[in-house]
Amino acid sequence: MARLSSNHSASIFYAYCQIVLPLFVLLLQIFSPLMASGSTVEFLPGFKGPLPFHLETGHVGIGESEEVQVFYYFIKSENNHEDDPILLWLSGGPGCSGLMGLAFEIGPLAFVNQEYNGSLPSLVLRPQSWTKVSSIIFVDLPIGAGFSYTNEKEIVEQSDWTLIHHAHQFLRKWLINHPEYLSHKVYLSGDSYSGIPIPALFQEISYANENGVQPRINIQGYILGNPVTTKHEINYAIPFAHGMGLISDELYESLQQNCGGEYRNIDPKNLSCLRDFQSFQELIAEVDQYQILEPAFCGYDLKMVPQRSILKRSLAEKVEATNTASRCRRHGYLQAQHWANNGCVRKALHVKEGTGRHWTRCNHNMPFKFEINDSFHFHVNLSAKGYRSLIFSGDHDMACSFLSTQAWIRSLNYSIVDDWRPWHVNGQVAGYTRTYSNRMTFATVKGAGHTAPEFKPDECLAMFERWISNENL
Do residues 23 and 167 both lie within one domain? Predict the structure, then answer.
C-alpha cells in the first residue's frame, strides 16, 4: 500500500518537509516570538468586556513562497495550558469555516439566538467549551473556507489531498512558531466530511514522524463526530428512517427487496427501486435529515436531496433570508455571517486586508476534487499502530447515522473490551458506548443530531473530558 497519495503533490510535500523545513527549524525556534503570525485578541465586537480566555488569530503562510495563507483561531486551555493537550479542529463541508466549531460546537463563544435586526450580532460565553481541558486550534481549510486565501488571482481547484497537505504544513509551521507547544500531546478532530481527511492527515503525520521530519508532532489520537467514512452512508438512511418510524414496514421491505440495500448508485433500469426510493424521498422531504426532531422549515431548505449529493451538501447554506424565526437553532448561522463580514470584526480578528471575499459559513462554490473514496483503510492502518480514537454519533442524524458508523467500525474486526452499555451525565443516560481492543471508543449521544455538541453540549463536554483523561465514559 502506498504510504501517501499517488498524487504528485505528495512527493513535493515530502521534499519540502525533508529538505527545506529542517534547515530552518532551529532558526525559527529561536526567533519565533518575533515571527509569530498570530496576534492576541483581547476584545471582540459583539462581546461585552474583555475576553475571559486567551484567543489568538492570524494567518500562517505555507508553500514555497507562502502563497497560501491559512487562517486560524487558537484558544488556550482554561485549565493548564502548559500541560494540556492540543486539538486541531477541521470543520466539515468540505469548505466550512473553523468558526463553526468555535461558535457552534466546542468553543467558548456562542451567538445569541435572536432574530437579526440589522445591528451587530451579540456573543456570549459557552460554559461547555472543550477548552476547559484542552487548547484548540480551529483552522479554515481547504483554501476558500472562512478567511483562508491564496495570493493567486483565483482559487485553484482544491482537493482532499491538497487539504491534507495544507493542514499538515500548517500544523508543523504553527508549532515551529509556538515552540512552547512542541512537546504537547496533539489530537486531530472534526466532524461530518472531516471523517475523510482527518484519518488520512493523521496517517501522513505519522509517516512523516517515522521518516524523521522535524519538528516531530506528538500525535496521540483522533476524534470524529458523525463522520463521513465510506460515502455509502445513504445506504443506512433507509433502515434508520424505518427504525425511527418515518417509513412503513411495507416500503422498507420493498426497498430492501428491489434495491438490495444499495441506494447510492441505483441502476436507472431498475424502475422498481427508483419508484420505491422516490417514495422514500417524498416521505422524509419535510424532515430535517441532520436532526429529525428539529423544526424543518425555519428559513432553511431541508429537503432530502438526490442520493448522489446527500453527503456533499453536509449542512449546506441554502438561505440568505432574514426572516428566520428565533426558535430556529440555525438562526445563529445567519448571525455568524453578518458578524464575520463586519469590518470591525475582521480588524479585531487580524484578518489581512485585501482578503475581501465574502465570508460564508460553508463555501460550497469553490472547485473541489473528491479524491478519497473512503477513509476506512486509514482507520485500519491507524488501528494497527495503536493510536487512540473516539468516534461519536448523534443518534438522531439520518445523513451520517450511527448505523453506518457502527457498520464500518464492526468491519475493523477488533474484539470488544467494554461491551455496549449506557454512559451517564448528571444521573441520566447520555448515550451508549462500546470500546474495542484497537483503543477505539464508539459512543452515541442521545437526542443529538449531525453536529452532536451543538445539540448536547453538556453531554459532549463530559464525554470529551473523560476520554481525553483516559477514563471510561
Answer: yes
